[in-house]
Amino acid sequence: MTTQRLARDWRLPTAGLMALGILLAAFTLHAHWNAFIQWCLATQITLHRYLVMYLLQLNNHQYAGGLWLLTGAFFYGVLHAIGPGHGKFIVTTYLSTNKESQLAARVVPFLGSLMQGVSAILFVFILAVGFNLASGDLSASRWYVEKISAVMIGAFGAFVIYQALKSLRPRRLTVHALKPLHQHDESCGCGHHGVGAALNGENWKIRLGVILAIGARPCSGAIMILMFSNALGIVTWGIAAVMTMSLGTALSIMGLSLAVRYARERTVALFGGGSHLSWLVPVAKIVGGIVLILFATVLFLTVIPISANGDYIAAGC
């Protein structure tokens, strides 16, 4: 009893320190946000120019440039994950409002990030190679794809809200619900409690929605590398660079997802997860869905305009 009382007594001061730390971090980030964004963009443009140079070396049969191309693409992907982006926002919102296993916290953002590379490859090969579109038409197509991806993120947020509202509805008890077939224990393996409960139900729909919401918006830098490699006739190296870039992003996002999951588990353990707080779960999901819709609205309204000369100018080539 003494230990439990001490734990309860320390909850409020700990929560206060956590809130103070979050406020200080938010203030510091806000104060240096513009400088951070400028640094990220400048560094990505510099790396992008190096990647173009390595592609030119490969085109001149200097195959040592291939190793540097893949290395630079990996670090480009890591830097892309560190900077602001929709993938980190979606993963953070999803894992902070949903209980997930460690396996799902690793696999879902990893697959979503890899899908970004696949989306860029499909975008370039279907439009640039298949339909032989000009640079201005590709820029218009990119504009539409980013608009559609923002709508998909908003639709995913609406789906999360719908799932949360549905869970708030009172469920009618049936005869089967009143009469359990067996006594649950750790060895029954039925999956109706503990970790098994998190792996059943409709979680696969939410996980698939997270993967699609992340992967449907291809990286503009990956598109530029693929277009340039296609123009040089070394498409295979372009695909390898894009997937290596996606791997760097995926590993970074996976680390972020595990950190968010750990923070969520520690918060639940600190404040307790009793039935009196069960209403907070759907409320948190509703708030997360609303935040996703607002974020999707910002993405929709701030898409880079169409460039008649192609997006490679804005990308720093």
From TrEMBL:
InterPro entries linked to this entry: Ni/Co_transpt_high_affinity, NiCoT_RcnA
An example Gene Ontology molecular-function term: nickel cation transmembrane transporter activity
Transmembrane segments: 12-33, 63-82, 103-128, 148-165, 208-228, 234-258, 279-304
Record GO biological process: cobalt ion transport
Localization of this protein: Cell membrane
Cellular component annotations (GO), alphabetically ordered: plasma membrane
Protein's UniProt keywords contain Transport: yes
The keyword Transmembrane belongs to this UniProt entry's keyword annotation: yes
Superkingdom as given in the UniProt entry: Bacteria
Membrane topology reported for the UniProt record: Multi-pass membrane protein
Major site of localization recorded for this protein: membrane
Pfam families registered for this protein in UniProt: NicO (PF03824)
Keywords associated with the record: Cell membrane, Cobalt, Cobalt transport, Ion transport, Membrane, Nickel, Nickel transport, Transmembrane, Transmembrane helix, Transport
Family: Belongs to the NiCoT transporter (TC 2.A.52) family. RcnA subfamily.
Main function: Efflux system for nickel and cobalt.
Official protein name in the record: Nickel/cobalt efflux system
Species: Lelliottia nimipressuralis
Lineage: Bacteria, Pseudomonadati, Pseudomonadota, Gammaproteobacteria, Enterobacterales
